[in-house]
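Issue 218. Parser rejects a valid record. Input:
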Amino acid sequence: MTLKPPPDWPADLVADMKANEFCGVVGSVLVSETDALRVWHLHLPVGKRCNFHRHVLNYFWTCHTHGKARGYYEDGSVRDVTHFPGDTRHFEFPKGTHMLHSVENVGETDLLFTTVEFKNSGNPALPIPDSVRLTVAA
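Output the parser choked on:
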């Protein structure tokens, strides 16, 4: 799919989408990883937006807080969603498919999500930099 940001999107949003077109960092911090899965936490303070990122693995997310989010997608669509604690959505990506998007907190409360990616999916896992991995002091 060709990136199709609308002409009215701010330049910084378009630049972020292009710069992160193949970014596999789907959360704020990678808290656990095995040969089978990756577990992420995503914390979005009020008024903040996460960078664009690409989902290629089957996954689900669960929201832990109440709030409102705005999703920006590579096809130019924008969707607002109201979240409630316990909201959970599942996604599957057959070989050669993906989703590129960013999420902005447009509500009045911080948003917190847990995302679980399954490495045994139709696509190979994208590389993840060490800088987003949880480090625990010994």
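Fixed in the parser; the record now loads. The helical segments are 11-19.
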